[in-house]
Amino acid sequence: MVALAGTFWWSAHKFHEAGPLTETRLFMVERGEGLRTISKNLHTQGLINAPYIFTLSAMVSGAHNSLKAGEYEIQAAMSQHDILTLLQEGKTFARRFTIPEGRTSFETIEILKATEGLTGEIATIPPEGSLLPNTYDYQRDETRERALGRMQQAMTDTLAALWPNRDSDLPFTTPEEAITLASIIEKETGAADERKRVAGVFINRLRRGIPLQSDPTVIYGITKGRHQNEGKGPIGRRLLSKDLKADSPYNTYKNPGLPPGPIANPGVASIEAALHPEKHDFIYFVADGQGGHIFAKTLAEHNKNVAQWRKIRKMQE
Q1: What is the DSSP letter of 298?
Q2: CATH number, domain containing residue 9
Q3: CB of 120 within 8 A of CB of 149?
């Protein structure tokens, strides 16, 4: 009995003592793996010293019936007890990727290609505006196609929820047009408090038949979303006056109305701005040199603002 008690005490001590791991490491429990395989893998990878104690403790406690598959983050010196609890609770390692608002579908795929742990190739570039920018959780070995599918479903669900509550007097009639306008808003301003005001400018222009004159649409006509992103802007240079005269359906300087489709993937805030624009009389806006814009109701007022912006830009150069 003394020997048995000593063995029990020693096993309990080993089960709760600090483990051999000296740095945080990821450990994968594959679907369908049994307790003995998990114990063996933990030992082989240097996460525990006594796999038989891990196995016995799991069986005695009944935890062996509730170990969950997934990828786990094992902390340095984590005890067998804590590892068993972690696997039983299913607190898997959180892998995440982030798609910022305003990225094109091509740029989104490039992010997925560079995301460690995702697998597989992407056969085709999804339609522009069909992916909802956000931060997404994923599991190791999830396919990139599946990740894209989740992003497309998120956009579908978001639009389905927002579209029915839109303002009643908008100068467009389809959800697709709303996404197109939202994508332009997204590319025109990164200031959260400006989105609805910028939306209002474009709504005013659409109602009056005035061309939108949006530089990002012209850029999209040139790049088709395959931006260079090498520190010199999406086309690698400043937009030129000849670009504004180019014969392209995305050239909103030449063509009134919305372009034929989205120019990026807009976020929820820009979609809401397109559906609930600020009501005002502004027709123009130009950068203020501080990350925002100055708005104007008349061309004369706008020209003064443009002249001021050119002075600021010259000083910045």
Answers
A1: S
A2: 3.30.1490.480
A3: no
44 with 101, same domain: the answer is no
Measured distance CA(28)–CA(118) in Å, rounded: 15
Task: Name the residue range of residue 127's domain.
Answer: 95-156
Q: What angle do CA 192, 101, 141 make, to 5 degrees?
A: 145
Q: Is residue 163 part of a domain?
A: no
Q: Provide the sign of the torsion angle of the four alpha carbons 179, 183, 188, 190, taken in this order.
A: positive
* 218 lies in the same domain as 289: yes
pLDDT at 6 over 70: no
Residues 58 and 131 in one domain: no
Closest by CA to 72, choosing from 42, 114, 29, is 29
Q: Tell me the whole-structure pTM to 2 decimals.
A: 0.83
Distance CA 25, CA 316 (A): 47
Query: Based on the number of CB atoms within 10 Å of its own CB, is 108 exposed (0-12), middle (13-18) or buried (19 or more)?
Result: buried
Sign of the C-alpha dihedral, residues 278, 280, 283, 285?
Answer: negative
pLDDT digits (tens, 9 = 90+) for 217-262: 999 999 998 876 666 678 888 888 899 999 999 999 999 999 999 9
